[in-house]
Amino acid sequence: MKGKFIVIEGIDGCGKTTQIDELSKWLPDSGLIEKGSKVITTREPGGSLLGKKLRGLILDNNENNKPSSLAELLLYSADRAEHVSKIISPALNNNNWVISDRFSDSTLAYQGYGRNINLEIIKNIESIVCQGESPDLTFFLEISPEESIFRRKNKIPDRIESEGIRFLEKVNEGFKLIAKQKNGSGKSTLLKLINGIIKPKNGVVDSKANIGMVFQNPDHQILMPNCRSELLLSINQNINRNEINKKIEYVLDQVGMTGFEKRPVHTLSGGQKQRLSIACALISNRNFILLDEPTALLDQTSQLKVLKTIKNLTSDHKKPLSALWITHRYEELTYADAVAELKNGFLSSWQEPSKFQYN
User: Fold this and answer.
1) pLDDT in tens, 318-358
2) How far is it, in rounded angstroms, from Cα 121 to Cα 108?
3) Alpha carbon separation from 80 to 3, 45, 132 (Å, rounded)
4) Which residue spans of the chain are classified as CATH 3.40.50.300?
5) Which of 25, 91, 305, 337 could form a disulfide with 96 if both were Cys (CB 3.0 to 4.6 A apart)?
6) 3-class secondary structure for the chain?
7) Which fold does the domain 5-179 belong to in CATH?
């Protein structure tokens, strides 16, 4: 079993250090952590040995050493890649809990909303450097930019802290948008509406489909220790053992995982976990699958396998399956039958992939 990953976010001076200290003291005796597991506290930038050196470069207040906005983004990305590889992933894989002062939301807030770097570029970089890791829980501590400056008035500021109140206001607004899940286009709301999780304020959603969901992070969806037990959990029919075995064999074959029935989930790659999630939707007789950025946390090879799996399934006219795929990756559109852009809560008309252009 993996440990849990908790992140504390917010602008400087919001109290992250204090809350991390209190949380790390409370958790060991809370009853939430298994016996023998530890609580690891860390930070970004500077959580690893290499990260400490990068932190010095990033926060150096010498005007002559000031990096460009893009260089700054890539320095933070290098720090995170090393942090995940050397600190976060090993700790989680040893069933320890990790509490980090900042993670990927800070990059979106500071470099995206603060520096005005394209959010899609940042998300694409993050999909590589995070290496499949994402927080199980993120706390956003909100204070005003004015309060942030007041709390730090007796402290010598680093380069980021010296940017001034206008920059801090932009970053703070970015954090608010991220916390409200409105930093994107409204995709989460759309999927929840289609799946009946929330109701529209006006009108109705009329869906006769049997809907299944595949999330961005399969670790938030898969519950059981091996592939067979996870598939058994998804069977919603009263059928005999022989029929169950046939269905399991069939759906694993459909997603390119023949022979994986007894494989422990912890030995699967991120892409295999996503394909197992798709198999769970198939075995529960779903005929319409909603996929929320299912390749965002995967390496290129795994991305391609998941894409081809969905393409093959939706091309099978004997057992028709429809899929609504949310993505930020332009290159994935070639696998679609039709494409629409969701922007600020509004959906464009559907177009052929070859003719599609961003507005």
Assistant:
1) 888 999 998 877 789 999 999 998 876 788 899 999 888 76
2) 10
3) 19, 7, 12
4) 5-179, 187-355
5) 91
6) CCCCEEEEECCCCCCHHHHHHHHHHHHHHCCCCCCCCCEEEEECCCCCHHHHHHHHHHHCCCHHHCCCHHHHHHHHHHHHHHHHHHHHHHHHHCCCEEEEECCHHHHHHHHHHHCCCCHHHHHHHHHHHCCCCCCCEEEECCCCHHHHHHHCCCCCCCCCHHHCHHHHHHHHHHHHHHHCCCCCCCHHHHHHHHCCCCCCCCCCCCCCCCEEEECCCHHHCCCCCEHHHHHHHHCCCCCCHHHHHHHHHHHHHHCCCCCCCCCEHHHCCHHHHHHHHHHHHHHCCCCEEEEECCCCCCCHHHHHHHHHHHHHHHCCCCCCCEEEEECCCHHHHHHCCCECCEECCEECCCECHHHCCCC
7) Rossmann fold (3.40.50)
Q: Which residue has the tokens 């500077």?
A: 46
Indicate yes or no: pTM above 0.70.
Answer: no
Give the burial class of 59: count Cβ atoms within 10 A of its Cβ; 0-12 exposed, 13-18 middle, 19 or more buried: middle
Give the chain's end-to-end CA distance (angstroms, integer).
44
Q: Which fold has domain 187-355?
A: Rossmann fold (3.40.50)
Both tokens of residue 45?
A: 């930038």
Q: At how many degrees (to 10) do helices 270-283 and 227-234 cross?
A: 30
- 122-148: pLDDT as tens digits: 988 998 999 889 898 899 999 999 999
Task: Pull the structure tokens for residue 82.
Answer: 């090393």
- Both tokens assigned to 77: 């990305």
